[in-house]
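Hypothesis: this fold can be encoded by more than one sequence.
Test: take the structure tokens below, design a sequence, compare later.
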């Protein structure tokens, strides 16, 4: 299964109350004690937060963190203008996120709520898959609050606040993307089987995270994973582009830690809503088995998968 959750660095809370974030050996911040301490502080704030009784914690971002946000915002702006689908661009314009400082999640909610009814809450890192989707069904997005390491501002191996907010919040400011995302969350509440849940997560991955869409003759991106990645946004058009197809999206297998080599293109917003939106609206526990049989029949999966 592809889930972004696999990309988050594990977080542990020690008995003395300190919080440690375990970065991979190849992470740019791995040898930086100040960065590691900072990651622990920010994860600790989310761990200490109790939903319902408190405001989402405010992080006092440093000048360096604001500088990373500003740099990425500035570098992504012309790439968005060139490569993002107009549905995303219009939503981004309406949301009007700051580009000169890291917004607090409360500020993101303050902007998003009147537009599409979504709110942002904080997460220390990985949120269990079913909890993450259940919240989507309630128009609530679990977001990390940390920033990538300052030595490589245009790269992150894990979803940071730049991905969560520049990628997802701009997208969720579109009523149409917001409805599709909510439908994925609502679907999770109906599903008991893990296979069906996996199917929803896979289709979500190839649409909301890494979706592309034609606009006239031009292929544009709308997926949050592409639109928050300085590298991927300049490469997606060179990938293998397939038609939207939930049986294919739900059974394709590959590495999530590299640029996505196969992408699925919608012909229009209406086409995306008809295929992916309707899938999320109707998927049930039997759908996964039916799609697996279809994938075998069409040669997308070997016979042994049935
Ligand atoms: Fe994401």
């Amino acid at each position: 299964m592809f889930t972004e959750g696999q990309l988050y660095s594990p977080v542990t809370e020690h008995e003395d109350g300190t919080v440690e974030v375990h970065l991979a050996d190849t992470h740019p911040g791995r040898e930086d004690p100040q960065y590691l301490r900072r990651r622990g502080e920010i994860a600790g704030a989310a761990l200490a937060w109790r939903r319902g009784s408190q405001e989402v914690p405010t992080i006092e971002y440093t000048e360096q963190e604001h500088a990373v946000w500003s740099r990425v915002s500035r570098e992504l702006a012309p790439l968005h203008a060139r490569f993002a689908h107009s549905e995303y661009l219009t939503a981004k314009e309406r949301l009007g996120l700051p580009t000169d400082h890291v917004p607090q999640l409360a500020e993101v909610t303050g902007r998003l709520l009147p537009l599409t009814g979504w709110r942002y809450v904080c997460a220390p890192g990985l949120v269990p898959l079913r909890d993450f989707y259940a919240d989507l069904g309630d128009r609530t997005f679990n977001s990390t609050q940390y920033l990538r390491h300052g030595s490589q501002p245009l790269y992150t191996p894990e979803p940071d606040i730049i991905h969560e907010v520049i990628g997802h919040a701009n997208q969720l400011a579109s009523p149409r993307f917001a409805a599709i995302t909510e439908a994925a969350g609502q679907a999770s509440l109906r599903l008991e089987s893990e296979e069906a849940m996996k199917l929803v997560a896979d289709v979500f991955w190839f649409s909301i995270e890494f979706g592309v869409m034609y606009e006239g003759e031009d292929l544009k991106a709308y997926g949050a994973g592409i639109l928050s990645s300085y590298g991927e946004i300049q490469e997606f058009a060179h990938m293998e582009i397939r038609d939207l197809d939930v049986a294919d999206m739900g059974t394709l297998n590959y590495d999530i830690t590299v640029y996505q080599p196969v992408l699925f293109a919608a012909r229009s917003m209406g086409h995306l809503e008809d295929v992916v939106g309707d899938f999320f609206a109707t998927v049930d526990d039997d759908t996964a088995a039916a799609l697996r049989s279809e994938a075998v029949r069409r040669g997308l999966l070997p016979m042994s998968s049935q």
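The domain at 4-305 is CATH 1.10.800.10 (Phenylalanine Hydroxylase). The mean pLDDT is 93.
Hypothesis status: open.
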